[in-house]
Amino acid sequence: xxDYGLTEEQLMIKELARKVAEEKIKPFSKQWDExxxxxxxxxxxxxxxxxxxxxxxxxxxxxxxGLLDLCIATEEVSRVDGGVAASYAASFLGMFPILLFGTxxxxxxxxxxxxxxxxxxxxxxxxxxxxxDAGAVTTKAEKEGDFxxxxxxxxxxxxxxxxxIYTVIALTDKSKGPRGISAFIVEKGDSGFSFGxxxxxxxxxxxxxxxxxxxxxxxxxxxxxxxxxxxxxxVTMKTFDQSRPxxxxxxxxxxxxxxxxxVEYAHQRVQxxxxxxxxxxxQWMLADMATxxxxxxxxxxxxxxxxxRGAKNIGSYSAQAKLFASxxxxxxxxxxxxxxxxxxxxxxxxxxxxxxxAKITQIYEGTNQxxxxxxxxxxxxxxxx
Amino acid sequence: MIKVIKDKCVGCxxxxxxxxxxxxxxxxxxxxxxLDKCNLCSACVTACKFGAILIExxxxxxxxxxxxxxxxxxxxxxxxxxxxVFELLGKAxxxxxxxNTYTGAVLLGYQxxxxxxxxxxxGADKVFLVDNPVLKNYIAENYSRVITQLLRKxxxxxxxxxxxTTGRSLVSRIAVNIHTGLTADCTGLDIDKEKKIxxxxxxxxxxxxxxxxxxxxxxxxxATVRHKVMPPAGILPQRKGExxxxxxxxxxxxxxxxxxxxxxxxxxxxxxxxxxxxxxxxGIGGAENFRLIEELAQVLGGAVGASRAAVxxxxxxxxxxxxxxxxxxxxxxxxxxxxxGQIQHLVGMQSSKLIIAINKDPSAPIFKVANYGIVGxxxxxIPLLIKKIKEIKSS
Amino acid sequence: xxxxxxxxxxxQTTEVKIDPQTNTLVREGVSSIINPFDMYAIEEAVRLKEKxxxxxxxxTMGPPQAEAALRxxxxxxxxxxxxxxxxxxxxxxxxxxxxxxxxxIEKLSPVDLVICGKQASDGxxxxxxxxxxxxxxxxxxxxxxxxxTIHLDTNPKxxxxxxxxxxxxxxxxxxxxxxxxxxxxxxxxxxxxxxxKLRAKKEVIPAWTHKDIGLSQEAVGLKGSPTQVVxxxxxxxxKGGKIFEGxxxxxxxxxxKEIEDxx
Lengths: 385, 395, 263
What we know:
The structure holds 3 protein chains of 3 kinds.
Chain A: H1 8-35, H2 40-48, H3 67-80, H4 82-101, H5 104-115, E1 121-124, E2 140-144, E3 147-158, E4 165-171, E5 181-187, E6 193-198, E7 209-220, H6 232-268, E8 270-271, E9 274-275, H7 280-308, H8 315-340, H9 351-361, H10 368-384
Parallel strand pairs in A: 1-4
Antiparallel strand pairs in A: 2-3, 3-7, 4-5, 6-7, 8-9
Chain B: E1 2-4, H1 14-18, E2 24-27, E3 30-33, H2 43-47, E4 53-55, E5 70-73, E6 76-77, E7 80-81, H3 83-99, E8 103-109, H4 115-121, E9 126-131, H5 140-154, E10 158-162, H6 165-178, E11 182-186, E12 188-192, E13 197-204, E14 209-214, E15 221-225, E16 242-245, E17 256-263, E18 276-280, H7 290-300, E19 303-306, H8 308-312, E20 333-337, H9 343-349, E21 354-359, H10 366-369, E22 372-375, H11 378-394
Chain C: E1 2-7, E2 9-11, E3 17-18, E4 25-26, E5 32-34, H1 36-52, E6 55-61, H2 67-75, E7 80-84, H3 94-107, E8 113-117, H4 128-136, E9 140-151, E10 158-165, E11 168-175, E12 178-182, H5 194-202, E13 207-208, H6 221-224, E14 228-233, E15 242-244, H7 248-259
Parallel strand pairs in C: 1-6, 1-8, 6-7, 7-13, 8-12, 9-12
Antiparallel strand pairs in C: 2-5, 3-4, 9-10, 10-11
């Protein structure tokens, strides 16, 4: 890896996350993938090593630090298991709205248990009819005295069922369009809140993806995020600005893991009497892969650093990082399988899992097509100024 | 202290190569030893072809001539003498012969007098017996108190014990009490006929290097010896020997109490005692498949072992683990099934007399230490093996 | 309650390779780790600390670079560290090593419990733990696979442990202070935490010499050691064996033919 001038603390995070990944995740990765199991033990190990304290200010039990720290940790976890990385990063996705928009009381109540890893969170936006079109959510929240009553269905929710704290996007006033959307904190165990279908996924199988069902789910009005109605859309956009570099880091991790597997295999595999790594065809493939991985990492780190420095209007760059890194992950993982040849297609070898895991990074938290919309719109807007 | 004789050193670097602590660097064609790293192991002294490295020790002049006899700790549980004791007696007789002295056996326990016969038949000239209810169960504190007193009274020159869990935990306490040297886990014992001292050979770094160790100035010279390395002494039914019974008072250490012994229920023989061990690793693929390993072990009359990977995956209890963080074994035959042969596993079993590896990956490191190997699917190979062995056993 | 954990820094065996030409150990670039068994000792101490608010101290005897092992122990949750670091300690055998550690423990008194790993992965002797117990005249339990109970309200304090044997385990009751050595089965060591690592980095670790623990230079190191290493050599390499490939039937028959006499 190129020297990115990481701080001593960041290097420590990297080393620690790698240790957790190698020792507490790698040995069980195949099993979790096969069984489609939520990696409880991995989450416990990550928590025990304080890796849920990242990005959370010290006054709420965190380590302070910023998005780059989280990207570094996510990348290391993902380098071993993209599924565990998804569960890990998804908890931050659920945490960011509280950190960015929560009232002081909400932060005091919810951030410390998230920092310690005692509790896990999830972000609930997607609905069967509201995927890329986030404004089309139909889950309703109606005010009734000191309470809100939620009704509706969220699906494809990462950490669904396993998380304790959910940031839920719901309509409070249909007539206002995007300004009629609000965000709520719903806790596991709230009355009228239950879980539906568990998805059987192609990849990132060491993560749970589940439906959330709200049936007259009654929550106190203090759970309205930020204490204000109508901020749901902006919460969503700002959250994604923070979380997309994380998805991009997950993609970089998958790409890096695939690359390492490919290099190792090319070095062992002998055909025509020599190691296949001595063939120029393979060498060039590896060279392209390595270059792309490094380019993706550079972009992700640069964007994360910009966020940490307080840069405004980061949306377009966040989208670029996610778009580019996830395409690189898909390409590099596919090429890695190719280098493994027939063996690469077999479940006995871990490389096919990387290819399956890579695919989701092009899809979730906004498909890459949506990322392009964001980037293009920003370009045109800038030009119009 | 260690020093390099500048006139003799040619800067060849042989010393630096063998240094286990990476403490030697060649600077301007001269070996320079980093004293912060050096632990005076003497590997460089042995390696130097020019006699250019010296470790100086002050000679302690003590009269050690009053120490006579080669003693063996006769470990027993419930009156059953541990098999390693017979191996030690065989060795002790040989050493005693070289030193022109007698072989002694130390037997501690309760109501075990009749066992002295067995020890004499296996070569003990004298059996030092301490029979006391306090000694019924092994307690390191009580046993070490008694043996310390015996050693002080009878002054043997050599004291050997098995490198078992009991032997290892006991002998170190005694060596500290008596203030003498102890060498653990020896695989070779010989007498330097000139100096009349015991040369103890033991593996280090998991058997990758061997060290020869002496205790020149202290007595007795104490060593624990690995099980199954030395042949057991034969039985001579008419052999004569003397039983010396000792009574000691105040041998009970009130600070430690034996509560109970719980025997582990094993389907096969226990690992430490087994002549044949069949081990399974990651390639076994699951807990249920260990039945295949057990079946092969059973037809061979052997024990079941496992690699760390199999234990960590929860397929088989830790009790069965062979390797660095498990047990070190040296059976006559070790059959490794679906074990790739990580160094941590190899250090626990590579002193086995015959190693057979079954693995589907021909490049697995286990084949490098194996005497025989089969490349193939263990789920095909093992059932065939079981069938063949059954045929042989029944014919 | 104060617990002292004794650890050793050892070369990482996974990285130790044999030079095929010279047939010697290649130690170049081999990193050092905490002896694997000592990791269980550290973990057990940290668990006891969490349960009983015990004060935990880790000690090691070794060259300056062994300080890294102490820092790692601190990052895992141990409170304090002491480094027994003195050129005079070089060449210590197990007798003098246990003496040095025992004297350090004495200086740290009152100590209720000393925990060691069952043995070190480089020397494999398993002698230092019982040696320390003997120097300090403490009751011991080696190969402990479980601490059943600890009663801190009795006088003296009492601990019940399970001790792993070749064919089962025994249950022992010890009056504290005592020393135990532990096996892998006792726990699953945690990984360091970020907060622990940051704290460990800042901690000032005292280094004690033979004078600090009241020993003469003659009593330690090579001079104080009853045993002497006279020679170190590499055993002859195992020659590559006979490998059967191809048809399982034939392979098995081939193997059986070779080993039939032994069965």
